[in-house]
Amino acid sequence: MKKFFLIYLCVILIFLSGCWDQSLLVNKTLINGVSFDITDKNELLGSARILNIESKGGGQFELKDELIETKSKYSSEVGPEINFKMPGKIDVSKAHIILIGEELGKQGIHPFLEIFYRPKDAYVTARVVMTKGSASDILSVNPQKSPIAFEILKALKSSESLTNIPKETVFSTWSQVVDSREDLLLPFVEKVENDRVSIGGVYLFHKDKYTGYSIPKEKSTLLLLLTNGIQKEGLVALNLKRNRSTALRVMDEKRKMDLVIDKSNRKIKCKINLELDVNLVSYSNNLEEKTNVNSLNKDISTLLTKEAKELTNILLEANCDALGIGRKLASSHPDIWKKLDWEKDYKNVQFETKVKVNITKTGTVF
Amino acid sequence: MITKKTSITKFQLFFFLIQSQVGIGLLSLPNVVQATAKGDGWISTILAGLIVQIMLIIYWLLFKQFPNENYTKITIRIFGKYIGKLLNFIIYLYFILTGSLALILYINCISLWLLPLTPIWVLSLFIILSSIYLAFSELTIIARFFVIATFMLVLLILLSFLTYGLEKEFQNILPIGHSGMKNILMGSNKSIISMLGFEGALLVYPFIINKEKGVLKSVSLANLTVTALYTYFLFLCLISFSPMQLKQVREPVLYLFKALSYEMLDRIDLIFISSWIVPMTTSIIAYLFFASKSISKEKSYKKTVLVNAIIIYLISIYPFDENMISKFSTYVTYLSYFVVFILPILLLVLTLFIKTLKRSENA
């Protein structure tokens, strides 16, 4: 019996070595960022940033960040095309960012998401980012310090924590693109002077297509607050009347969204009450004036209410249901939702937004 | 003969049932239920748990009449030698086929998520070898292992708390009851299939120590635990995925973990499935055990296990495509209706009928 057991163990050990599914780092090329564009000739331009690991001997490695560009006809062809140009097998399991060009975004981003959520190795927490202009232009920027993909990722993360842009990964983007009851907001980056990349703001989507409307980063925080999307905190800078300006840190938000439906003519009124708890970061008032928290609360509230109104108007114009009114309608008034044609009826929604600001802290000075 | 070596306590029974029930089915359950019950899938699993509970009570009533016999012996006593043996063969067939189906799904899942290049026969061989090893031993030892393996489940439940970091949308399940009773019941039907394994109680009942009281309590607790676990994971998937997305994803419970990412840790789905191998294997072990117990005599038990294992192995390495698997699964479902639901009810009714008949004869 013991002998039988030993043989059994040995056989198991041989099998347990896992020789079929090993993939050595040496044979791989790691991709850390991908971009998709459409050219004037209607060709897909796929670019990838590749991290080449070269041994210098003595346990030292040199990292080289390379750019590879390919042209192809279909979205599924991009992956294989890049693979042909590469020395090793491409590995997208650590592709941190996926950049999609503005023009391509107008034709739909779903096929490019699909490449990243279907395969087993896919990294569904990769960030999806739009670019103003061509995406490969941005991916080809060569910063001095670290690879561009990591630079963009860093910038995204810090903006996300300030609720400047939404945190959208392949997973969350996919979730919203296939859901007809709400629309997507995606952050976009742009190239600024000195060959640098900066966060631009938010693009409005309808289904998986970019609508052409965008919200600049100065206003996007308020939009995200309206969608109940506060991350760690929110940073808003405002220019008030009478030569005053202020910067606010939104610590907490309470959003109340109510739908009032007129059953006779199916008019939908959406009432949003947004309450913000804010800390003053800076407030430059007139020299002699003392900070009056109550009147300041009022001033900021009126200004933000006005800005919110502008934002909801843009949302309606873009036909982008970023606030998820469709979903709210489907869950609370299913009978009405079934009768509606949300493609057309969304534009008739009336918004009544009210922002109320409550300054809880003014910092170390009054 | 039931010796101390082959008997199990009620505590062990609880874990035994949990481990034979929980397995591969849970991973794809949210997707399967979504097809009909949609946002009301969680009601479906609760209903399924209720139906299972009713069946467990029926089993319990049946065994009150025959405390020292198992399922296959009762059929012979009620239906006589020939029909009884035929029925026992169907029961045996059911256990073998369910075991094979579980193994096929299990291997498919492993090769899809973990080891795509490893040949099927190798994967299957590993699983079946370790199953044989445990199924060879007595029930007590299997039960002990199942008790330990349950810690794995606890670990996985703890792991699931990590998914609270993902965006949740409670409106997905509203309004409650929107998909209608018919669809919810169809979802329940699907959930029961992934809860199968409780019928093991039919075979292990005679081995329980002190079965005069408390057995119903432990089987009910086991059922409650499994139902709660299934409902919990289903609910988690319903609020984490958008409805259309849930329809597209093959194993939503795993995909949920894929969407998590931390500085230090990534691809938690791979950790999850590597640990989930244990509950999946315990189901295979349980079915191998049931199949062998249902036909073997005391002496030839080990040989029967070996033969059954070879049969299951051969079925599992057949290159099934997705259509064939779903057909296979439907057949097993039909078979399960008979073996798990209809036959025990029939046996109970006949037993009670015969009893009253005898009583009236005596009087």
Structure described in brief:
The complex is a heterodimer of chains A (366) and B (363). Chain A has helices at 2-15, 75-85, 102-107, 110-117, 135-139, 148-161, 170-177, 217-226, 293-318, 325-332, 334-339, 342-345; strands at 28-38, 44-57, 60-72, 89-91, 97-101, 127-131, 185-192, 196-206, 209-216, 234-240, 244-262, 267-284, 350-361.
Please give the largest β-sheet of chain A: 9 strands, mixed
Could you say which overall geometry of chain B the principal axes of the C-alpha atoms support?
A: globular
The biggest sheet of chain B amounts to: none
Given this structure, which CATH class of chain B is correct? Mainly Alpha
Secondary structure: helix percent of chain B? over 70%
**Structural class by SSE content of chain B:** mainly alpha
Oligomerization state: heterodimer
Strand content of chain B: under 5%
Average pLDDT value of chain A? 84
Flag low-confidence runs of chain B. Answer: none
Estimate the strand proportion of chain A.
Answer: 35-45%
Task: Give me some keywords for this one.
heterodimer, A: 366 residues, alpha/beta, GMP Synthetase, Chain A, domain 3, nine-stranded mixed sheet, four-stranded mixed sheet, 12 helices, 13 strands, B: 363 residues, mainly alpha, Amino acid/polyamine transporter I, 15 helices, globular
What this model shows, in words?
The complex is a heterodimer of chains A (366) and B (363). Chain A is of the alpha/beta class. Chain A contains 12 helices and 13 strands. Chain A has helices at residues 2-15, 75-85, 102-107, 110-117, 135-139, 148-161, 170-177, 217-226, 293-318, 325-332, 334-339, 342-345, and strands at 28-38, 44-57, 60-72, 89-91, 97-101, 127-131, 185-192, 196-206, 209-216, 234-240, 244-262, 267-284, 350-361. In chain A, helix 4 (110-117) packs across helix 7 (170-177) and helix 8 crosses helix 9 (293-318). Chain A is globular and about 85 Å long. Chain B has one domain (4-362): Amino acid/polyamine transporter I, CATH 1.20.1740. Chain B is built from 15 helices and no strands. Chain B is globular. The model of chain B has no long low-confidence stretch (mean pLDDT 86). The A-B interface holds A 12, 15, 18, 20-21, 93, 120, 123-125, 169, 171-172, 174-176, 178-180, 324, 327-328, 330-332, 334 and B 112-119, 122, 125-126, 129, 166-167, 169, 171-172, 174-175, 178, 241-245, 248, 255, 258-261, 266-267.
